[in-house]
Design a protein that fits this description.
alpha/beta; Arc Repressor Mutant, subunit A; 26 helices; 51% helix; DNA-binding
Length: 596
C-alpha cells in the first residue's frame, strides 16, 4: 500500500487538525467551526446528536441561537468538504472513506495487518502494521485538549495506536529484526512506562542484541514506576520474562513468556468480530439505541425483566458500533444453559482463547491478570450477556483501555460503579403491531386488530411474548387471530401455550425463579395472591408482610431484579403503583396454587 491519496479531500486528526482539498491546505480559522469539524471527524460515519455538539461547542449555557449557529457552521464546512456532512433528524454525520481520513486509513491498515497474522503471513502483517504506525504524527488534536469530548477521543486514538504498535514491534522481534525494533522502542517505552507489552518487547529485543544487563535494568525501572504511580507489581507475564532472562536469556521462537508476548502464525492477537448475528425483525428502541451508541461511558448495563429484549438490543447496538473498535468484538454468556452462574476463570479462559492466546496450563488464579494485560491498550467491544450479579461482571471488565463493554442483566446491578444503565420497558402498542406484522404479515394483523390489542392487554408487550405469539400464529396461517386469541383465553395452563421450538416461556420462568438459593421465592409466590397488576403500594406491603424480611426491603429487591417496576406516569402524592409482567404474575399465581 502506498501513501498516495486518491481523493481530492484528505483530513487528519492523528496529530493537528488538518484538511487538504486537491492537495492544498484548507483554512478553517473559526475556533468553533474547527471544533465542530473535529468532533464529526472523531466520530466519522456515525451520527453525532445535535445536543452533544451544542454541549461541546457552548458548554452548560448555550445561547438561544445555538441550534441556528450550529446550522451556520455546518453550512460553512460544507463549502469546504462538500456533501460529506448530512443531517439525519437528530444529529450530523461526516461520511468519509479510508483514503479521505488518516484515522480510517490507520484502521484499515491495522485490520489488514491483523488479517495477515490470522493467515500466518507475518512478514506482510509487519508491513501493514508498520505502515499504520507511520501515519501517527504526534499527540492527536492537542489544541482541543481542554474539550472533554475531544480529550476522550484523543485518548482512545492513543490506545489504538499503542495496541497496533505493540503488535508490530512483537512481530519485528519474532521476525528477527530486533535491532531495528529497538530504534523506536526506547522513545515509546520512555513515553509510556506503564505499558507492559512494550516493556516486555524492549527487554526481549535487548537480550537478543546481547544487552542482558540493560534488559534487567529496564525491568527494575518499570517495576519502580508501577509501584510509585499505581501501587501495583508487574504482571505475572512480565515477572516470568524477568525470571527467564535471569535464568539464561530469552529463547528465540515461541516458548515461555515470549510465546505470550509475540503473535503466533494463524492466530490473531486481537479477535475479529465474533458477535452472533443481528436480528432482522428488530423493532423500536430508537431512544435506547441512540443512548448506547453516543454515550461515552466505558460500561453500559442494559437491564429489564425476563424476555424484554436485552440481548437483542445489545446485539443491534454492538453491530452498529463495532467498526469503532479495531481490535475486534467478543461476546460471552455469564450463565450456563441451566441458568447457573459460570466461574470467572472459565469465562476468562474462553475470552483469552477467543482472542487467540494459548492459555493451556495457565493456572486459574493467573487468568484475570492475563486478561486485563491483554485488554490494556486495545480497543475491543465486549458483550457480557445475562449477568447474574455484579461479582460475575467485575473480573471481566478492562482496566485502563479504550474498550467498550455492554452488559445485559435481569438485575439493575446497582453495585457496579461508573456505568450507564439503560432500562428497558415493554414495547408500545404500535411497535407490537409492527413486530407481529413482520412475523405473520401486516395485513393479517390489521384484519384482526381488536384481537391483537386484546392479546397485548392480556399478556403484555415484551418481545419474547410477541415472538412466541407470532411463531404460534405463523404455524396456523389460515386461522383468524380472533379465534386463536379465544383459544388462548380458554387454555387451562396458558403459560404452556407460549412455546416455539426449543424456546419455552415456562422453562425461562422456572430457571429464573426456582433457584434454591433465591431468598425471595416465598415473597414472589405471594404476588400471585394479588389481583392485577398494577398493585398499590399498601396492598403490596400487606401481601409481603410477615415473610421474615421487611416488606419494603423485599419491594426494593424486586425493583432491583426488575420483577416489579414503577410506571413512569403512575406516581402520586398519596399512592404509588407497581406493575409486573402479566405472564410472570400468572406464573406466581400458579406457584402459589401448587404450594411450591
Amino acid at each position: 500500500m502506498n501513501e498516495a491519496v486518491s481523493s481530492v479531500l484528505y483530513c487528519s486528526v492523528l496529530g493537528p487538525l488538518e484538511v487538504r482539498v486537491a492537495g492544498r491546505k484548507a483554512v478553517i480559522g473559526a475556533p468553533k467551526q474547527r471544533l465542530l469539524l473535529t468532533i464529526m471527524l472523531c466520530r466519522v460515519n456515525m451520527v453525532v446528536p445535535s445536543a452533544q455538539l451544542i454541549d461541546a461547542l457552548w458548554g452548560e449555557f448555550p445561547p438561544r441561537t445555538a441550534r441556528k449557529n450550529l446550522q451556520v457552521y455546518v453550512s460553512s464546512l460544507r463549502k469546504i468538504v462538500g456533501d460529506r456532512i448530512d443531517f439525519q433528524g437528530w444529529g450530523y454525520c461526516f461520511h468519509a472513506q479510508p483514503d479521505e481520513l488518516d484515522l480510517l486509513r490507520f484502521h484499515a491498515l491495522a485490520r489488514a495487518g491483523r488479517n495477515a497474522i490470522r493467515s500466518g503471513d507475518l512478514t506482510t502483517a509487519a508491513e501493514f502494521l508498520g505502515e499504520a504506525i507511520q501515519i501517527w504524527a504526534e499527540q492527536p488534536l492537542a489544541e482541543f485538549a481542554h474539550v472533554p469530548l475531544i480529550a476522550g477521543e484523543a485518548e482512545r486514538f492513543t490506545e489504538q495506536f499503542l495496541s497496533v504498535y505493540e503488535d508490530w514491534v512483537e512481530l519485528e522481534i519474532e521476525l528477527g529484526r530486533h535491532v531495528e525494533a529497538l530504534a523506536g522502542l526506547d522513545l515509546v517505552a520512555a513515553r509510556f512506562p506503564a505499558r507492559e507489552r512494550i516493556a516486555a518487547a524492549k527487554m526481549t529485543a535487548l537480550v537478543r542484541c546481547g544487552r542482558t544487563a540493560e534488559a534487567l535494568a529496564h525491568f527494575q525501572t518499570v517495576r519502580r514506576h508501577l509501584a510509585v504511580e499505581m501501587g501495583i507489581d508487574p504482571s505475572r507475564v512480565l515477572q516470568d520474562l524477568h525470571q527467564e532472562i535471569l535464568a539464561g536469556g530469552v529463547r528465540r521462537g515461541r516458548g515461555g513468556s515470549v510465546r505470550v508476548a509475540v503473535p503466533r502464525p494463524g492466530r490473531l492477537q486481537g479477535p475479529a468480530n465474533q458477535l452472533p448475528r443481528d436480528i432482522a425483525d428488530f423493532v423500536g428502541r430508537e431512544a435506547e439505541m441512540r443512548r448506547i451508541v453516543t454515550d461515552p461511558a466505558a460500561v453500559t448495563v442494559i437491564t429489564g425483566e425476563l424476555g424484554i429484549g436485552k440481548t437483542a438490543l445489545a446485539m443491534r447496538a454492538a453491530h452498529t458500533i463495532s467498526p469503532a473498535f479495531p481490535d475486534g468484538a467478543l461476546m460471552v454468556t455469564l450463565r450456563r444453559p441451566g441458568g447457573e452462574p459460570r466461574p470467572a476463570a472459565e469465562m476468562q479462559r474462553e475470552l483469552l482463547e477467543a482472542a487467540g492466546l494459548d492459555v493451556t496450563g495457565v493456572h486459574d488464579d493467573a487468568l484475570g491478570s492475563l486478561w486485563r494485560s491483554w485488554l490494556s491498550g486495545r480497543s475491543v467491544l465486549l458483550v457480557l450477556d445475562d449477568a447474574p450479579d455484579e461479582s460475575a461482571v467485575r473480573p471481566l471488565l478492562p482496566g485502563a483501555s479504550a474498550s467498550k463493554v455492554l452488559v445485559t442483566s435481569r438485575s439493575r446491578l446497582s453495585g457496579l460503579e461508573a456505568v450507564d444503565r439503560v432500562g428497558l420497558r415493554e414495547l408500545s402498542g404500535a411497535e407490537g403491531i409492527e413486530f407481529l406484522g413482520k412475523m405473520i404479515g401486516a395485513e393479517r394483523v390489521r384484519r384482526d386488530l381488536d384481537a391483537v390489542m386484546a392479546l397485548f392487554d392480556r399478556y403484555g408487550l415484551s418481545p419474547l411474548t410477541l415472538r412466541l405469539l407470532g411463531g404460534r400464529f405463523a404455524r396456523l396461517p389460515r386461522v383468524p387471530l380472533s379465534r386463536l386469541a379465544d383459544r388462548l383465553a380458554r387454555a387451562e395452563c396458558v403459560l404452556d401455550e407460549f412455546a416455539a421450538g426449543d424456546v419455552s416461556l415456562r422453562e425461562r420462568f422456572e430457571q429464573h425463579y426456582n433457584r434454591p438459593s433465591w431468598a425471595h421465592r416465598a415473597a414472589f409466590r405471594a404476588l400471585g395472591a394479588l389481583h392485577g397488576p398494577p398493585f398499590e403500594h399498601d396492598e403490596l406491603v400487606a401481601a409481603l408482610h410477615g415473610g421474615g424480611t421487611p416488606a419494603e426491603r423485599v419491594i426494593e429487591a424486586f425493583l432491583e431484579a426488575n420483577i416489579l417496576s414503577v410506571p413512569d406516569h403512575e406516581v402520586a402524592a398519596h399512592s404509588m403503583l407497581y406493575t409486573m409482567s402479566p405472564l410472570a404474575h400468572r406464573y406466581a399465581a400458579e406457584l402459589r396454587a401448587a404450594g411450591r
